[in-house]
Amino acid sequence: MNMNCQNCGASLENAVNYCPNCGVSIKKKVSKKKSREHLNLVIAFYIAMLVFLIMNYFLFQEDTSLIQEIATESIFALIIVGFTFFDFKNIMKLYQFPKIKPLYLLGYLAIPFASAFIVYYLVEFINTKVFEESYSYYFTYVDYPNPMFWAILFVAIFPPVFEELGFRGFLYNQLKKITNTRVTIILTAFIFAIVHFSVISILWIFPFGLLLGYLRHRYNTLWIGMIIHFIHNFIVLYLDYYYFDSALLEF
């Protein structure tokens, strides 16, 4: 069955993505049934994340062991990977590294260096002045054998790999099927922020998520977001380690 271009009225084949007459992109309508399926997957993903985080919060309020930490991170990874199988073919396409101008790439890579320092000192200032406490990612792992190894794995590697796969991969793809690009970027950033369960973190995680969503849209890849996410988390972790180590030397 043929259809007509809404821009110039030319007759089109169903398989085309662009009008051969005027070159306008052809937006194919998603059936209500398909749209409902995508929406259900979005809701299921959000509920799964929420249930996981709530259970994790109540079960591990006190200090956790290394085994508990490994189990928690493994469950999170399995949830993300499980959802990706609903859109496996399209998500795999996001692991192609895009062609990007070197100057642009350098600019994007400079962002996490700046954001890490700004976020670290801003959050530290708010925590100490408002809540009269100081939080350290590194301190969480200091009692584990080879603490820096586990800290890097669970703070700097796991989140960029699996959070980008989940939010800028699966969730982005599903939302894009039922809404426009702008709303998709905003919603993925918002959900990405609120599942971190921290009021202070929302102040920077939401705009950070907007940036990652924009790069996902512009280059149709997860690699740039993963690299930026990794650099940011690694620098924040290293600053935690530096000040924790410096505090020990003062005694």
For the sheet with most strands, the description reads: 2 strands, antiparallel
Mean pLDDT figure: 85
Question: What is the count of β-strands?
Answer: 2
Secondary structure: helix percent: 55-70%
Rg on CA atoms, Å = 21 Å
Model description:
This protein folds into two domains: 1-30; 31-250, no CATH class. The longest helix is centred in the middle third of the chain and has 30 residues, at 147-176. 69% of the residues lie in helices and 2% in strands. The radius of gyration is 21 Å and the shape is globular. It is mostly helical and 251 residues long.
Q: Helices, strands, pairings?
A:
Blueprint: E1 3-4, E2 11-12, H1 32-59, H2 66-84, H3 88-92, H4 102-130, H5 147-176, H6 181-194, H7 199-219, H8 223-250
Antiparallel strand pairs: 1-2
Briefly say what this structure is.
This protein has 251 residues and is mostly helical. Helix content is 69%, strand content 2%.
List keywords for this structure.
single chain, 251 residues, mainly alpha, two-stranded antiparallel ribbon, 8 helices, 2 strands, globular
